[in-house]
Known about the structure:
alpha/beta; 13 helices; 53% helix
Amino acid sequence: xxxxxxxxxxxxxxxxxxxxxxxxxxxxxxxxxxxxxxxxxxxxxxxxxxxxxxxxxxxxxxxxxxxxxxxxxxxxxxxxxxxxxxxxxxxxxxxxxxxxxxxxxxxxxxxxxxxxxxxxxxxxxxxxxxxxxxxxxxxxxxxxxxxxxxxxxxxxxxxxxxxxxxxxxxxxxxxxxxxxxxxxxxxxxxxxxxxxxxxxxxxxxxxxxxxxxxxxxxxxxxxxxxxxxxxxxxxxxxxxxxxxxxxxxxxxxxxxxxxxxxxxxxxxxxxxxxxxxxxxxxxxxxxxxx
Length: 290
């Protein structure tokens, strides 16, 4: 196995597959952080340029940013490092196997694997993969079944659960994960900063039990987990929130307005709030600042 490159995802997936018995023989690593990560998580892997990593590998994992991947694949395809029967995997969330087309012309087995997990590049992330889901996409046509099954087998070897993602649905799949995970972090940090501006410290201690319960309820009960002034149709409280946010946390006010509006729409669609009360909340959200 070869890993291009030893970034957060590449090093962790490489370590997970090494735990399953794969021999990581080479990795590419340019920055000081990636070299340190390779030393910790991929011990024994020789640090080489990307084409040499792939040349030595039966299984090549391309763990580079989405925008870098197409150029990398074209470069590898032109460098005579690919051979029939190799397995070439990329880890980008929004792309399927179409981006691997230049490599597939060399009769490699193209697979897209994307872990539905926040990965920081630390050793504990290897354990977090156990029980996580990994999006798997293989090609259509000849050898399609083989690629899908190999991809699923690699996921199972890591202790994760494979989920088949059709090629055309990869961008939407990735958008959902980014919207849920990345924006959740933004939302939590915004709430913590607002509490800090209110003089409440440590803000995280106040938020932790509340947000943990809210997330658990949302996953268990869907929109029925919605609580608070928007679902109650309490337009006066929403208006008060906005006045104080506009005065004391103006950077956070637009996000509050956007999420409160979407909350009102979901609550109305689910029959959780009286339509007239929902209209009052939306009117409060749209009312210009005095």
